[in-house]
Amino acid sequence: MKLKHKVLLYNFIGFAAIFILSRLLLGYFVPLQRLILAVISAVIANIFAPKFALETIGAKEKMVMKWVLKKGIKEL
Hints:
alpha+beta
């Protein structure tokens, strides 16, 4: 599997996990319409999901992660 495909997959998994978790928790505690809950959950997931990217250092590509809950950029 290419590294850029892994980055895309990790971005999707991070977003989906936080989206589903926030959607279920908001739906349990706040009685709102389904569409509004989905939009609010998407915004929350977009803010709090870790962001993965490729960084080219010399001739090598490395995967890096930036997260709002961690300071700085982490190399993976």
